[in-house]
Design a protein that fits this description.
The complex is a heterodimer. Chain A is mainly alpha-helical. Chain A contains five helices and two strands. Chain A has helices spanning about 25-35, 40-55, 65-70, 75-80, 85-90, and strands spanning about 1-5, 5. Chain A has a two-stranded antiparallel sheet with strand order 1-2. In chain A, helix 2 crosses helix 3. The two termini of chain A are about 20 Å apart. Chain B is of the alpha/beta class. Chain B has three domains: about 1-130, Alpha-helical ferredoxin (Fumarate Reductase Iron-sulfur Protein, Chain B, domain 2), CATH 1.10.1060.10; about 140-300, no CATH class; about 305-425, 3-Layer(aba) Sandwich (Rossmann fold). Chain B has helices spanning about 1-15, 20-25, 40-45, 55-70, 70-75, 85-95, 105-110, 115-130, 135-145, 155-175, 195-200, 205-215, 230-235, 240-255, 265-280, 290-300, 330-340, 370-385, 395-410, 420-425; strands at about 190, 220, 260, 285-290, 305, 315, 345, 390-395, 415, 425-430. A four-stranded parallel β-sheet of chain B has the order 2-1-3-4. In chain B, strands 7-6-8-9 form a four-stranded parallel β-sheet, with helices on both faces. In chain B, helix 12 (about 205-215) packs across helix 20, helix 14 crosses helix 15 and helix 17 runs parallel beside helix 20. Chain B is globular. The model of chain B has no long low-confidence stretch (mean pLDDT about 95). The chains are: A mainly alpha, B alpha/beta. The interface of A and B includes residues 34 and 85 of A.
Chain lengths: ~100, ~425
């Protein structure tokens, strides 16, 4: 996958193959690729929380934790990330693709 | 090599020791009329002949010819039979896992009634015996078998989420007694969920809880077994499918509920309602129906009151293959739409002729075939675009996710909702 002349190794769904190469620049470029454009303060709060949760527990956080920790309302999350918390936010946060119907 | 031979022998046993005559009949009947070609989204979207459903049947039937018939065993060259070698195995993986959503459209159109998707599932079962299921798909089955739900949600996280949603419900209906009951015995209904609801998309749980509240229903969720999905149906690994189905069966008995209500989930409703009695070899002593049928029942019996003026946007309906073509729930969702929204427009074609969203058959989970999945999705994108709808409603969480991706990729500008969500939006509380 190429964004702004930078190459990323991703799986078939566009999730980073090596989650450990992630940094904030990667997040900004992935968001651009998804058509989100410039990440706002709310986007960053969500992305950083998801990333920290994954680094601490090895799992993506529940949507409840995302809402309660960041203070972003549930319905707003789907507006901020049109592909949803998994294919949108978790992917931008550099996580591997979660299992299940996502 | 010996290892491959052992695995191969296990796979061939599925063909040589069938449980009944159905498989052999369906392997011996294709007359290559070609009618199935135009049914298949993979063929329609790519025009590549290798994707024609009859060719998928051919692989399995030529392996059957080679190993299970006299002429194939002794004169393989004369019968067009096929060795099950590395090359054939790779072809099977690519076509049976990578190029079929098990939508069943070809089966419906077959001029002589070959159950093509059953043959494809048999091929998947052979690959499963050989440990050749694509890793991304197997990973979701493993999560379910090992943790009790296909997203590995810990119980505490699950109960915290429901407590949070219960607070929201109390606020919304302005009643401190409104509840999302957990592990209650002797209720009328045990409701189930797709794990992606508590994990990432809980609006549909809130919606259904509001409907239950309005209907004054006696219901519960279980924290032991709430997962409506059964991804082992997609891998055709019957041993794993049985483990998953048995858990829900046991929990129904454990909580002593009358009715098992399957959440809006195409394959999950098929797997538990139509496949599980065969998996478990039992007649179920309780009722099993889908949330779609329950919602229609609440409306027709007057248990909930709706004002469709509350849903003013133009809405269309996507039919999940496993619920509609393969599951026989066809009119109830239309009845709900007509009673719930002002402007309902059908797609063309729809009902049992509808096209798959492109994410069925486990495709959504298989990153390996992502590009192909989004290629065939152009058919669904065009169907939606032609309706002019602003909202696509579908009673399947797997379809919801694929449709969200279709919206994003093809810039349709639509919202995707479940039936429970639009019903909840139109409810008038008394």
């Amino acid at each position: 996958m190429e964004v702004d002349g930078k190459e990323f190794k991703v799986d078939g769904d566009g999730f980073l193959q090596d989650p450990y190469i992630w940094n904030e620049e990667v997040a900004a470029l992935f968001a651009k690729f998804d058509g989100i454009g410039e990440l706002t303060e709310k986007h960053w709060a969500i992305v950083k929380f998801i990333r920290k949760n994954w680094e601490d527990t090895g799992m993506a956080p529940m949507i409840r934790s995302i809402c309660q920790t960041t203070g972003v309302k549930l319905k707003d999350i789907y507006q901020l990330f049109p592909l949803g918390p998994a294919r949108g936010a978790c992917r931008i946060a550099g996580l591997p693709k979660p299992d299940g119907c996502v | 090599m010996d290892n491959f031979k052992n695995k191969k022998d296990k796979a061939i046993r599925i063909l040589s020791e069938p449980k009944d005559s159905k498989l052999i009949t369906h392997l011996n009947s294709c007359v290559h009329c070609g009618l199935c070609a135009e049914s298949c989204m993979y063929y329609l979207a790519t025009n590549d002949e290798k994707y024609i459903p009859a060719k998928k049947v051919d692989i399995i039937s030529s392996i059957y010819q080679r190993y299970c018939t006299f002429t194939g065993k002794y004169f393989p060259v004369l019968t067009g039979s096929k060795e099950l070698d590395e090359e054939t195995k790779d072809e099977m993986i690519d076509l049976l896992f990578g190029a079929c959503t098990l939508c069943g459209r070809c089966t419906k159109h077959c001029s002589i009634g070959v159950d093509i998707s059953y043959v494809v599932r048999t091929g998947r079962q052979m690959l499963s015996e050989m440990d050749m299921v694509p890793a991304t798909l197997q990973s979701t089955v493993n999560a379910a078998v090992q943790t009790g739900n296909n997203m590995s949600i810990p119980t505490e996280e699950f109960t915290d989420t429901l407590a949070w949603l219960e607070d929201e419900l109390k606020n919304e209906v302005n009643d401190p007694m409104a509840a999302i009951p957990l592990n209650v015995t002797n209720t009328n209904i045990l409701y189930t969920l797709n794990p992606r609801e508590p994990k990432f998309f809980p609006l549909s749980i809130s919606a259904m809880a509001k409907v239950f509240y309005a209907a004054k229903e006696s219901w519960t969720l279980s924290t032991i077994m709430y997962d409506v999905t059964n991804y082992a149906y997609f891998t055709s690994n019957n041993e794993e499918a049985i483990i998953i189905a048995q858990r829900l069966y046991d929990e129904m008995l454990n909580l002593n509920s009358n009715r098992c209500i399957l959440a809006e989930c195409g394959h999950g409703s098929r797997a538990f309602r139509w496949e599980a009695p065969n998996y478990l070899r039992k007649k179920f002593p309780f009722e099993v129906i889908t949330a779609v049928e329950l919602l229609a029942e609440y409306i027709s019996s007057g248990r909930i009151k709706l004002d469709k003026e509350l849903n003013k946007e133009v809405m269309t309906l996507h039919d999940p293959c496993n619920l509609v073509r393969e599951g026989g729930v066809i009119e109830q969702q239309r009845y709900i739409m007509k009673n719930t929204v002002c402007n309902f427009v059908e797609m063309t074609p729809h009902g049992t002729e509808n096209f798959c969203c492109g994410g069925g058959g486990g495709q959504l989970a298989m990153s390996e075939y992502n590009e192909r999945r989004m290629k065939i999705a152009e058919i669904k994108a065009e169907q939606i675009r032609r309706t002019g709808a602003k909202v696509v409603v579908t009673p399947c969480h797997n379809c919801v996710d694929q449709l969200m991706q279709i919206d994003n990729k093809f810039k349709l500008g639509v919202k995707i909702k479940t039936l429970a969500e639009i019903v909840a939006d139109a409810i008038i509380l008394e």
